[in-house]
Amino acid sequence: MGHASLIIRLAKRKSLSFGGSAVTQSPQMNRLAKLLFACCVLLTVALPLAGADRVCLINGPADAAQSRYDLAIGARRELNISYFYVGGEEDDFTMRGFALLRETARRGVKVRLMVDALFNSIPSHLGAHLVREGVEIRVFHPFDPLKPFRFNRRLHDKLFIADGHRLITGGRNIDNSYFGLSRYRKEGDTAYRNRIDRDILVEGETATQANAHFMTLWNGPKVKPMRVGKYRCLIRPDDAPKRLTASRRRPTPPVYRAILRRDIDAAKAALDRALAEFQSQPRVVQLPSPIDWNQRLRPVDEIRFLADPSGRKSRGQHTGYHIAELVNNAGPGETIWIESPYLILTKKARTVLGDAIRRGVRVIVFTNSLNSTDNLLVQAVYQREKEDYLTLGLEIIELAGEPGREGMETLHTKSMVLEQAGIGMVGSFNIDPRSERLNTEVAIEYHSAVMAGELLRSIQERIKKKGIRIGLDGMPVDGRPRYLGASPKKIRRMKWRTLPALIFKGWL
Known about the structure:
It is a single chain. This protein is an alpha+beta fold. It is about 40% helix and about 20% strand. It has helices spanning about 1-10, 25-50, 60-75, 90-105, 125-130, 205-220, 255-280, 295, 320-330, 345-360, 375-390, 435-440, 450-465, 490-495, 500-505, and strands spanning about 15-20, 20-25, 55-60, 80-85, 110-115, 135-140, 160, 165-170, 195, 200-205, 225, 235, 240-245, 300, 300-305, 335-340, 360-370, 395-400, 410, 415-420, 425, 440-445, 465-470.
């Protein structure tokens, strides 16, 4: 604005000074000065906007699938991907994604895939084939028998970064259930429930920061290359499960090499079939029309990429700390909307939220009921402490689910909106001890009344369609049963887990 004000002052002058002498402007020079002034104003205003970060909320599973597909095929230099969980060979969406990564690597793009060492289903022979094709795969924090108590710190980042310029992050992992492709099979089958989730697409400097964070983890001491000989290879000859393990110190046995070659060939054939599906159906899922992301992206006033270090979380260096700071800075009359699939308040979280409520801040939380949850351990603690949260002043709304069809849908979104301040946040952070203390987490915090309003409307629409408000006694206010239609079997399973859940509450 300093340059613009200077231009305005110069334009108002009646004469221009050259070499110490005053020269009166002619009408032609006056028009020229006005033209130059208009050009300078346009440049002053447009250039910052051109370089500013832009964001787009991705709510539906079809858009979520398509956005990742578009970023992959549009990558020219590198494609960096980090996820907590990635499905295996039985997952159709994952196999199509692996086929896409393989073709991206064949085009000369540097493809890096980082997954948690414990919570992924990538078989070693499939990983071996991808590595041969140019896809680098590394695992975060493999189990070390010499340090058994450190296994609990896991990679929970969800990052999809193309050329360090565009980023997708949010709550989704990679398998059918996160993209609306699961099919209900039987009661209580958690592997086949569809998850209600949300992502955010970011373009600009923030994506560059996320890429730098990815590379820091990638080159860090906790991340190791995926090696076929170091891990067990699950072999199923003639549908009979067998495990063969290659020794670290001895040469790989010939029989193991032969079986592994066979399985690598099978993995190649499976990816070839997935690629053929891509060629016959270019889109990952059927969409009514192509998506123009440039039209959907919107500028924001301020944006911040939040990320946790791979090691011990210290004060001021993790996502939970910044979330607490946002709540602490909320003034009277503010309304905070939170979406979290898991709700367990630590002592610190109770203090922060309780202080905010006493200041006059309204806190509304949308979370899972027992009927819709996919984690009975967390639900056991939540159901035991729910009335305490309500007494604290939280307004709790639960996802009702479908009575008689448990787990058909489960909430998996991690979002927050400060309504009056115009601040939105989308990321991987759950309101539980694990996200606060143990896992690595990422999030996008942005300041924009327009985009925060869009996020708020999305949350409110979900609540209107499927949410049930909980009263101070822990019961639904509309008269439904306490567990919103959960079967007696699921209620018993949850109650049996109450004692171990309370013992290991800090790890949930």
